[in-house]
Each structure stands twice: as structure tokens, then as C-alpha cells.
Sequence to fold (142 residues):
Amino acid sequence: MGTDTGSAVEQFVRGALGCSCPTEVFRSVSIDRVPAAVDRPSLTELRIGSRLLVRLTEMPGEPSSPGWLEQLAAEGCAARDSRGYNRFRLVLTSITGLVPVAIADGLRARFAAATVRDDRAHLHVLSRSQLPAALSGATVAK
Fold:
């Protein structure tokens, strides 16, 4: 990955996601696009150092539909644990702009219930415009 991309990812993770990982963690950043699977949208996976797993995906048109968020949370936590990462962050993006507070709060409550208040798992609900250019096309459903 190029230096510009790595720097943009670091700024995004530190700024928008509030990560306080030490600088040396960002020396190794991998970005992979993961195609859609049965009952799961496509996503982009960032592996930062050996500490942080970030998955980005587009929020479905009907965010209140059952099961999709819980599945993403369970799969992300399982991947974090099996790969030995310290933290998992799920980033949901919306192409329509900022997500209304009531919807975002409902998603956070569902995520907290799905992760049994796992303090090593975090949900972020962002507008796609908040992503750096290196990731701006990363969450487009295919």
C-alpha cells in the first residue's frame, strides 16, 4: 500500500474512529475487499498492525431489518478473536448522508446486545463522505 493511502487510513482511524493505537501499529496496514456472501453484503477489511480489525460496509436501505447487523457483529468478533487482534470496529456507511440520531442509536443498541457489551468491539455509523478517498469506494455494495 502506498504511503499516501497508509497516511489517509491512519488519519481516518485516529480521527473518525477515535483509535488511540500507537504510531508503530500503522506501519502495517492491509486493505482487502471481501465480496458479498449469502446474507452478507460486500465489505472492506482493514488489518492494522496485529491489533486492530476494521470492517466497512454499506448500511442496507432498511436498517431496521432483523439479523444483518447481528451477523456482521458476530462474524467480526469471531475474526478478531481467531486472528488474535485486540479490537474490532464495524463501520457502517450511508450514501444518503448522515444517519438520523434515532436510527444510529438503535443500531448501537443492537450492536451492544449482539456483542454482549464486548468492550473490544465498536460500531461507527458514518456518511460515506467521511471516508478517505482511499476507502470512499470501498463500501459500495456489489
Q: What stands out?
A: Residues 68-83 form the longest helix (16 residues).
